[in-house]
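Researcher: I'd like a structural prediction for the single chain below. Treat it as a standalone chain; there are no partners to consider.
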Amino acid sequence: MLQSDSELIAAIRAGDSHALHELLLRYRPLAVRWASTIARDSYLAEDIAQEALMQVAAKLDQLEDPAKFSAWLRMTVRRQALNHVKRQRREITSADAEWNESAQHASGRTTSTDPQDIVEHQITVEQLLSGTTQALSARDGAILLAVAGDARTEELVERFAVSRANLYNIISRSRTRAGEEQFRAALEGYLKDRRRHKLPRISRLSIPAWSRPYSMFGIAVHAALQYASDYQASLTETLGLLGDPFRLSVTTGCHWRGISTFDWTFTAQRGMERLGREPRICSTRRMSASHDPERSLRLLRLVHQSIDEGMPVVVWNLVINEFGLLYGYDDAERQLLYRGFREQSVVFDYRDLSRNHEQPELFALAIGWRTSPPATDGAIMEAIRHYARGDEPPMAMFEFGLKGYALWRTAAESGTLDPLGHAYQVAIVCEAREQAVGYLRLLSERARTSLRREGLLEASLCYEKALRSLYRLYPSFPFGYGVDDAHPGSPDTNVAAALTEALQAEQEAIRLLSHL
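Model: Treating it as a single chain, here is the predicted structure.
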């Protein structure tokens, strides 16, 4: 039964850290939404929301009436957002540098700070001819059209009487609004076509059931496969086939934005091969900076088709850094039904599938029919070795596999660990390694030789040792890292020591598996 805010706060004050976790998860989407109305920047809104949530979590004992938690949090978010906006205005002289950075990120190459260079791959002739600029004010539409032509910075600054920084803001905002209008028009055409072909307008599968507390790719896939009548594998076996128990992704400082970040298209394709299932994938990861309504519509088509076939769709980042399942749609209301690892369903608008240049990757996987038998145990052990070596598509500022431990340890030793990111990293890796122990024991039970059986059991004991070291890292969130009497020293020293022990144990496990 869903607890009220007052009940959760009472449990928190009694020392229940899980209640605090639930309260923060419950309000995080709202906090981001409140921050967005002021900051007008999705990434900045996430940072503001995190700061506000950390602040109220640390001061819960000062809240006299727990029933007013929502209002208190909203006031805190608003204050934080206004402070950020004021700081941005004071730092307006650095706008040119930010402008260039944004353009470089969007286009994937070095660019000048001229608006024409920034948007040459972001505004298409089709977009301008489609009439989407009509959704803008007369001035903003004129600026966007001028930039899409040959107008240069100084000419635009003089003609429209705006500063360079304001000109960039107008271009960015106008491009986003024009893209939204373009998607709206394309969506109307798509839904009209569905009605003409008399396709279902409403479909809803049974509510997905989650069996574990954290959001992981393999857990979401297993939950989706429960809808397939020909799938009988346990959660542990599903996770083992997908490789989740043995993987690690760490970004600089363990920042919370980088939690469980991989190239999900690559990961899903390899994982479905080992499961012997057909993957149907749609991702915004390799989108150009221009708004692409057709890609967003392909994602919606994938959702329609899969749900009509009786299978939910695995989706990443519809809720930031979370895997969940889309299990229903309503064309009349333009709504999607979503369920993540929390015990509640969420309704999203079709427009939430549309992504602009400022928003994070959106990934979706529809699991198709069985195409081949699952991978052999030998192939799985080879895959485990690949994960340990970090054989993943490279991503800037990330380390994969056992190399991730070094980056994590460096952040602990330098005092740059992000508290929230560290907390989630510990929780997710512990969940993964628990499954690694179980999966290796499962492999040992069906091993055909005593040598293989003993080697797998010994490897499972190594992962169990790593798990015990990782357990020590659970922080008393958000009040600091855990410190135990058996390992005295500063919290960050304890983190570095425990990570070293976990790394050494996993290295030994991989050595044993390599011999098999």
